[in-house]
Structures are given as C-alpha cells and as structure tokens.
Amino acid sequence: MNFTYYDDNKQPNEQGRQDVSEEVLARIENNFTYHPPFGSQSFRYGVIRDEAKKLAKTLAQFCPESRELSVALTNLESCVHWANSAIARNEKPPEDAKSPHIP
Predict the structure, then answer these.
(1) Rounded to an integer, what distance in angstroms lies between the CA atom of residue 11 and that of residue 49?
(2) Average confidence score pLDDT of the chain
(3) What is the 3-state secondary structure (H, E, C) of the chain?
(4) pLDDT for 98
(5) Do residues 30 and 89 make contact, with C-beta atoms less than 8 angstroms apart?
(6) Domain residue ranges of the chain, discontinuous segments joined by +
(7) Global pTM exceeds 0.90
(8) What is the band of 103 on the pLDDT scale with cuts at 50, 70, 90?
(9) Calpha distance 43→2 (Å, rounded)
(10) Contacts of 69 (CB under 8 A, 6+ apart)
C-alpha cells in the first residue's frame, strides 16, 4: 500500500485547508493510536533493542567520540523505533485476544 500525505491536484480553501483523503485519515488514526503488545511482540521488541544496544556499544568502542558517532547512535535509535513501529502498527491482535491494559 502506497501512502502519500499530499495530492498535487488538491487546492486549499479560503482558510488554506484542503480535503484529506480517507487513506490519509486512516494512516493518521493508526500511527497516532496506542497499540498494546500481544503475543510475541514484547519479546521481539526486546530482541531488536538488545541487538541495537550491542551495535551501539561496538560503535562506541571503535569510533572516536564525535558528532558523527552521536549521529550514528541517534540513527540507530531511529532504526529501533521504526522497526518496533513496523511490528506495532502492522500486526493486528486476534479478535479474541484481550488487551493487557483492559480488565
């Protein structure tokens, strides 16, 4: 599925706003909704974080403290965020699964 946030053919109204497609509204709803973990997700989040931490320590050991190292570590944090977001946003819990946050 290809998502875009804009359409070159849409023109803003007098207030500078344009109509928002259902596709964009659905993406916003999904991306800004809390997705409680289920099944093996928590385990996989941990594996991704642990592996990134190993790489971060390797980078810190072999690279001089510098702006470049800081950028590398920041991008590694982004990598973990987006990998975990891929899991959270794109996997749907089974219909009969209860959220651990709802009694």
Answers:
(1) 43
(2) 88
(3) CCCCCCCCCCCCCCCCCCCCCHHHHHHHHHHCCCCCCCCCHHHHHHHHHHHHHHHHHHHHHHCCCCHHHHHHHHHHHHHHHHHHHHHHHHCCCCCCCCCCCCC
(4) 60
(5) yes
(6) 35-90
(7) no
(8) very low
(9) 29
(10) 59, 60, 63
